[in-house]
Design goal:
This protein is an alpha+beta fold and 471 residues long. Helices cover 44% and strands 20% of the residues. The protein has 17 helices and 16 strands. The N and C termini lie far apart (93 Å).
Length: 471
């Protein structure tokens, strides 16, 4: 063995250092500006919707409720059943194409402004800043020895984080269990084991992801960060550093002429790095860790204003726009390129199918099943009888009186025909006997149609084909 070669333990240590990057805590600096205002608006908007929607009432019930116990999904005046799973599939496809479209236009736009991980990280960081102070104050606090003041500050922050996390978990479960009854069970300490588990589980996930893992979720756990590169091209608007204008970077006095000193507009203040929630340096070029939040744009524009330089050293732009020195007119002219038009066309088609399908969805549904316990038989009166089980489903929130009809054979009738009342938002099993005069049919299997017609109110009907057997 070469005497100069390192020991095995040293090799293992070097390999571990090369394979794993030790996480450095990011102390992001607060920033103001146009893009920050949009982030604040999106945080407020999404959380008003998330926390407020379960409390809205509609016709005496929760407006939005995914009731897994009864297998009914309530969306204001609409009720979806397991048979309507096609609409869930269409909704997922629409969301996917919408994500493709937004990414092709402006990169990780969803990540920077509407992703739950980003939104809750922003909220937790806001609480952290209010309790511990801005970037330098938090660095000094973490570097100081533990004392009564530090313990009080840290306890206050984590107490607020835990309270928000538990409220988030409670609200999440409130979308699947009526939230009013859920709140009563929480206050009376009678919450069931599964509700308790999911409240704590979702609260713990919120507390861990937004309070501790933060950028690690975006950098290593989120698959979107990995495949976004296949959805963007050289005309996609992304947060970009204009290296042609900014390099060579370097510090200088405010009154100095950067060109005379052989420098670009970048003063190398590193504020763009300090405000980044994922801790990257946008000046190194496009990186998968960039979530496109625009915090560095706001920060750099403020520095440019102080130096009396033009804004836009860091901006939303495309690779072609930077390279070819395009203005906004040329940049936007290249926005409607073929892939954007394809995504947009597919999205319009999918939304049309989704809306059209919901509008034409049958509010009265029926399934016909032959009663296998009762054979075809001849009954008194010279009639041949077949027995069926009808599953009638009323998807409206009003009771409907339903009349059963049958066609397909001469003299085919519903024996002892009476209207059936189907309660609101309910499905029932209704046995019926169909009869036909024996003299009107010969031995064989005949195709017939059974129809359910709702009486009164908006006209509703449902039909199903089956067979009538003459032995």
């Amino acid at each position: 063995m070469n005497a100069q070669s390192p020991e095995p333990s040293e090799n293992a240590s070097a390999a571990e250092e090369w394979l794993y990057e030790v996480r450095r805590k990011i102390y992001s600096r607060s920033v103001t500006g146009w893009f920050n205002n949009w982030r604040v608006f999106m945080v407020l908007f999404t959380q008003v919707v998330f926390y407020g929607l379960p409390w809205l009432r509609w016709d005496g019930r929760q407006a939005v409720l995914l009731d897994l116990a009864t297998r009914k999904f309530y969306f204001f005046g609409m009720i979806l059943w397991p048979q309507d799973v096609i609409f869930l599939a269409l909704l997922l496809i629409i969301s996917a194409y919408g994500l493709f479209l937004f990414t092709a236009i402006a990169g990780r736009l969803f990540c920077g402004y509407a992703c739950p991980q980003t939104v809750y990280t922003e909220i937790f960081m806001w609480i952290e800043r209010r309790v511990e102070g801005d970037r330098l104050a938090r660095i000094r606090l973490d570097g100081s020895d533990w004392n009564a003041r530090k313990i009080a500050i840290k306890t206050t922050k984590h107490a607020l984080w835990i309270a928000l996390s538990l409220w988030t978990g409670f609200t999440f479960v409130g979308y699947f269990t009526p939230i009013v009854s859920l709140a009563g069970e929480v206050l009376s300490l009678t919450l069931g084991p599964w509700q308790t588990f999911w409240v704590l589980f979702y609260g713990f996930a919120t507390y861990g992801n937004a309070g501790f893992m933060r950028e690690q979720v975006c950098k290593y756990m989120c698959p979107y960060a990995r495949f976004q590169s296949v959805m963007i091209d050289k005309d996609t608007l992304i947060v970009t550093y204009d290296g042609q204008r900014g390099e060579p970077r370097g510090r200088r006095s405010k009154n100095a002429d950067p060109r005379a000193e052989g420098k670009g507009d970048c003063v190398d203040c590193s504020i763009c790095v300090q405000v980044c929630p994922t801790g990257i340096d946008i000046r190194d070029g496009l990186q998968y860790m960039c979530i496109g939040c625009g915090a560095c744009v706001d920060a750099c524009d403020q520095v440019m204003d102080k130096m009396s330089y033009p804004r836009g050293l860091i901006r939303y732009s495309s690779e072609n726009a930077i390279r070819n020195h395009w203005g906004k007119r040329e940049q936007w002219a290249h926005l409607l390129r073929p892939r954007i038009l394809i995504y947009l066309g597919l999205l319009v088609v999918m939304v049309g199918l989704f809306v059209g399908g919901l509008a034409m969805r049958d509010a009265l549904k029926m399934n016909v099943m032959r009663d296998r316990n009762v054979l075809s038989r001849e009954i008194p009166g010279g009639l041949m009888e077949n027995v069926y089980q009808l599953q009638l489903m009323n998807t409206t929130e009003a009771p409907r009186r339903v009349r059963i009809e049958a066609t397909g054979l001469p003299g085919l009738a519903v024996h002892d025909a009476q209207a059936v009342v189907v309660p609101p938002s309910t499905n029932i099993l209704q046995p019926i006997e169909l009869t036909v005069p024996v003299d009107n049919v010969r031995k064989g299997i005949y195709k017939i149609e059974i129809k359910a017609v709702a009486e009164g109110g908006r006209p509703l009907s449902a039909s199903s084909r089956t067979t009538f057997i003459v032995p």
